[in-house]
Request: fold
Amino acid sequence: MRIKFLAAGVMAIGFIGLMADVATADLQIQTYIYRDSQGNDQADPVNLLFVGNAVDTYVDAHIASLVGWTYSSGGTMYFDDHGGLQVQDYQRTSAPFWEDHHHVRIEYADDSGQE
Reply:
């Protein structure tokens, strides 16, 4: 079973994964995340897909250690994957919420869209 990760934010951090897996993974993802669990309030675009054998906790840890984004404040967002909304698993920001900052949200799903 292939594992995929979805990340959304105002700034792309980079791309991790195997490009060969992108063509074979069952990616059924909407291009935006939502502020509400019904999918009525569209928010940020999904701009990174992590595909391969990584684990969502590793993606979160690497963002914190490699990029230095150690803050995790912000509202909860939902990813539309395989026709169902999934709550984000992690989020990282470049600074506290009261300062100007960049933000990334991470959601884990397998090829069926389940967490």
Q: What stands out?
A: The mean pLDDT is 74. The two ends are 13 Å apart (CA to CA). The first strand starts at residue 3 and ends at 9. Strands lie at 3-9, 29-34, 42-52, 78-81, 84-87, 90-93, 103-110.
